[in-house]
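Internal ticket - ligand job 337, thymidine-5'-diphosphate:
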Amino acid sequence: MRIVVTGGAGFIGSNFVRWMLDADPAVSIVTLDALTYAGNAENLDGLSPVRHQLVVGDVTRMRDVAGVLDRRVDAVVHFAAESHVDRSISSAQAFAATNVVGTQVVLDAVRQAGVPRLVHVSTDEVYGSLAPGEPPFTEAHPLTPTSPYAASKAGADLLVLAAAATHGLDAVITRCGNNYGPYQFPEKLIPLFITNALAGQPLPLYGDGRQVRDWIHVEDHCRAIAAVLQRGRPGRVYNIGAHGEQDNLSVAHQILSLLHLDPGQIRHVADRPAHDRRYALDTERIERELDWRPTIEFGDGLAAAVSWYQEHRDWWERVKSGAYRTYYESQYGSRLP
Ligand code: NAD
Ligand code: TYD
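stdout (structure tokens):
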């Protein structure tokens, strides 16, 4: 099986490439990635050049996408996106370009090349926010995104569903909760807090820290995407989650406790605008139709992630140098005087 993975040099994409090559010796993969600030060729180091190739290209450019697609490609798994809510609040144009326009380019290129299947990797954030006690999101929940990031992903999802309905494109959408694990860019909560804790810096917790996310280890997400790729029904949406609801304050405490550090390192800072209070996913559909189940408990997965960042200090110290410092200063400078 030949798969093209867009965004395969990022966090989830690189985990998926590694997982898929490991899981199935008959798979070969071409990664198409623009290597933005979040893309890192190092995340794909050590893979066999016979089975994996990295092509640097932009999903908003038809010639870049068409260049990696031909009739021998069995599937495209589309991860490429601008993915960080805080950055979308500071500046949303790249989100509209990559997430909306880029997805339409991928749809057109897949159709033109006659690729038999597209998996579009989306997020639970398209559903908006839940109040405490409300039932988890099902796939039928209306799309009511609040951040520019989530709105751009919702736009992409609608374009994918439109291509499936109008052109009969064989496309499947996944909507997953918050991921954590190896190779996650340290702008997101868990790697930011682990690496700040390890570096003796404050853990900047937005608002009261009682916002809830439905956490899933990236490896469980990769297994779910593989199940959807192999067995998902065309035109269908599948939620992916691990019943891992945790509030941010508790996540911060768990990280510090795993590292035997003082909770005094937590700093409550100014909240994010329009901060979604809670995400939670109903995963009955993927469990029933595709016989997929999460396997990693949050406590175990978090402990493994903490160990990974302890053992890969070189990786995150390199990532946190250079342009990251400018980002950190603009995002947290006024919050952490
Ligand atoms: P990431 O930011 O770590 O990686 C994104 C990758 O896409 C990077 O390698 C980047 O270089 C690449 N990219 C960006 N713009 C591109 C462009 N124009 N052309 C080609 N490549 C481009 O993101 P992630 O956390 O790995 O998320 C991957 C996908 O999963 C995204 O679509 C995201 O919306 C979705 N998702 C993420 C989470 C999460 O918790 N991280 C949860 C659910 C869904
Ligand atoms: P994040 O990892 O940015 O994912 P998302 O916003 O897509 O869910 O944030 C997860 C939660 O952690 C969210 O409620 C915002 C919060 N958060 C902080 O409290 N401090 C931070 O520095 C960051 C990056 C996030």
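Auto-summary: Residues 85, 125, 178, 188-189, 192, 204-206, 211, 213, 248, 272 surround thymidine-5'-diphosphate (ligand 2) (CB under 6 Å). The domain at 2-178+217-240 is CATH 3.40.50.720 (Rossmann fold).
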